[in-house]
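Please, structure for the following, as tokens.
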Amino acid sequence: MDVIRLAGIRCYGYTGALPEEQVLGQWFEVNLVLWLDLAQAGASDRLEDTLNYCWVIESVQHLMKTTKFALLERLATAIADAILSSTSPNSTLVNQVQVGLTKLAAPIPDFAGTITIEITRQRNG
């Protein structure tokens, strides 16, 4: 199985356990690993035989901007589900996705680090 990695997808979103996080929002970063068969694209050299990276990035950004969840785990799952259940052209090429979702500035006293949730999901059927 082949892999496409999309790293550093940054977006302002409204996910968090505190009410202020869902109102004021904060910055998040998403890193994706997409497992798919790239043999046809490798042989044909045609854009229509591979996954549209722009579509994936725009889908992730739209979801992050327009949804509100309490948990990072829920947002990461929503991102994976959106990619795996899409009917966009060639999105069915993706067999498995790993989502790394990072909260860049968690509102935790005396903590200047980041928090990352990583989940891996497979296409059903």
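The helical segments are 19-24, 39-44, 53-66, 72-85. The radius of gyration is 16 Å.
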